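Lab notebook, design round three. We kept the backbone fixed and only want residue identities now. Task for the bench partner: fill in a sequence for the structure below.
Input structure tokens:
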């Protein structure tokens, strides 16, 4: 890397906006296809369960490439690697839009995930190279807006495009932005001089690839993402077809062997030795746990709106998306504070308490909640995101040397990605399991001997008879109505229970902060 104080050939902020373009679209693609799944399934004559592989295949490929990006950058250079990823992502997006069958769409989504997986670590490395230490907080704020706001806008944008045009356009919109990003990157972004020397050293060693490490990363993280995405559908350890158990066992075995192998290998493909630096390890654990809570709680409220409040994807997005402005407003402020020498450890608790407070607030919602009551906890959640994402991304690299940044960005983004996937899997599992629990408990009280139930059924039957329905049909409709009320109330209670659990998890993360070293962006840490 170049000296961080040396003047850049192009304005820092232009570089930041340039590399953020493609990253924004890549992160957007992790969520934009969710709402289009029914349309994709219908358009390609596939079942809903089969169509979920459109999401899973992308996440699997993305997860595998993330930790490998630092090693690949060391071989070809950051600019070349970034442009190759943008090219592959853009081309694969066009192919996804033109896919004739579900099988081809899944193959193209794998290619899209491979291209997209290298964008985030590359951008972080470019920002660390481009900006002096005291300005990196603001740089990470721009990066954070892309990474945090894109998944929030994804369902809204995907719903609107699908409703008004076609599901194919959720992929086609990546093409012009990808081309623009390629043109700007080729003109504006440059590798620092010392990276060229690093590439020459790496190539002088020969292209000795850690094939065993590469295979273990691919199998371990790929299996982990599959089980995150399909675990609840397969009933986890209760899967009678033993698919879930097989993927869990494969993931645990491969990742365990990976740790042992990479720590002993002289030229590892995944530098786990970075975790020996206490601040990087602590920030990695925090980003993993925080994004588990963030992503898990972030998916619950939109699902509630569509399942229980009767909102379609577009209307739900219009209600919830304005909260993204809280993140966009908060992150630059946090970046400014970091640049002025505020310790990251002083900002992170605010984010955690805001996220936990949002979950606590959401745990008190009900089916008669007004739009403002639904939006308010969401705003608090996204306010907290700004106080978590920027300080953690800034503090993680403070005590690392220049030569370690490439590997560190890939490993750090992998931890964030896996934490988010885990949080979403936990949310899906808790909602389903708690709904079953509450349904069984509520049904226990729906019996003829219960006078409240008898009076309610009689009143409903009389109402139906008064409107020209026979008593027998009226009684059948009354029972159906009560069953529907039990199902909806069970679902509501399941969501509220999950919010309660995330509230506890958010508070439980706070003690991990005690392991962090002083994380000041100037004059405090031992920085490169």
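Proposed sequence:
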């Amino acid at each position: 890397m170049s000296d961080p104080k040396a003047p850049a050939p192009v304005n820092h902020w232009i570089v930041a906006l340039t590399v953020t373009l493609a990253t924004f679209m890549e992160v957007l693609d992790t969520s934009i296809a969710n709402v289009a799944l029914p349309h994709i399934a219908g358009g390609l004559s596939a079942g809903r369960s089969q169509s979920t592989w459109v999401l899973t295949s992308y996440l699997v490929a993305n997860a595998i490439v993330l930790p490998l990006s630092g090693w690949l950058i060391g071989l070809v250079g950051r600019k070349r690697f970034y442009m190759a990823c943008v090219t592959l992502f853009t081309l694969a997006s066009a192919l996804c839009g033109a896919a004739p069958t579900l099988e081809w769409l899944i193959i193209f989504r794998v290619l899209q995930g491979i291209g997209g997986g290298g964008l985030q670590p590359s951008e972080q490395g470019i920002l660390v190279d481009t900006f002096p230490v005291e300005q990196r907080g603001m740089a990470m704020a721009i990066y954070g807006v892309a990474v945090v706001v894109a998944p929030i806008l994804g369902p809204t944008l995907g719903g609107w495009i699908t409703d008004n045009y076609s599901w194919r356009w959720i992929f086609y919109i990546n093409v012009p932005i990808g081309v623009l990003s390629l043109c700007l990157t080729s003109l504006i972004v440059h590798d620092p001089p010392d990276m060229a020397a690093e590439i020459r050293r790496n190539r002088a060693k020969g292209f000795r690839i850690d094939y065993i490490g590469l295979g273990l990363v691919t199998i371990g993280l790929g299996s982990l993402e599959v089980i995150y995405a399909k675990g609840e559908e397969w009933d986890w350890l209760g899967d009678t077809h033993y698919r879930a158990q097989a993927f869990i066992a494969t993931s645990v075995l491969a990742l365990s062997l990976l740790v042992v192998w990479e720590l002993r290998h002289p030229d590892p493909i995944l530098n786990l030795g970075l975790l020996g630096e206490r601040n990087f390890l602590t920030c990695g654990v925090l980003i993993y746990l925080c994004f588990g809570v963030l992503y898990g709680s972030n998916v619950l409220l939109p699902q509630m709106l569509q399942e229980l409040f009767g909102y379609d994807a577009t209307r739900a997005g219009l209600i919830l998306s304005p909260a993204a402005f809280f993140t966009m407003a908060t992150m630059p402020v946090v970046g400014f504070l970091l640049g002025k020498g505020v310790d990251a450890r002083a900002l992170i608790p605010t984010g955690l308490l805001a996220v936990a407070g949002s979950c606590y607030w959401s745990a008190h919602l009900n089916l008669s909640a007004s739009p403002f009551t639904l939006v308010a906890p969401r705003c608090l959640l996204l306010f907290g995101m700004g106080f978590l994402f920027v300080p953690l991304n800034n503090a993680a690299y403070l005590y690392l040397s220049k030569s370690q940044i490439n590997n560190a960005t890939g490993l750090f983004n992998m931890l964030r990605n896996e934490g988010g996937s885990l949080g979403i899997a936990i949310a899906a599992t808790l909602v389903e399991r708690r709904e079953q629990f509450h349904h069984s408990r509520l049904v226990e009280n729906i019996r003829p001997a219960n006078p409240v139930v008898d009076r309610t059924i009689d009143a409903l039957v009389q109402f139906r008879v008064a409107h020209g329905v026979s008593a027998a049909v009226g009684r059948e409709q009354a029972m159906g109505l009560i069953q529907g009320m039990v199902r909806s109330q069970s679902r509501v209670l399941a969501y509220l229970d999950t919010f309660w659990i995330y509230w506890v998890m958010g508070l439980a993360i706070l003690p991990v902060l005690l392991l962090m070293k002083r994380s000041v962006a100037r004059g405090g840490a031992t920085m490169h």
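Keep this in mind before ordering anything: The chain has a mean pLDDT of 83.
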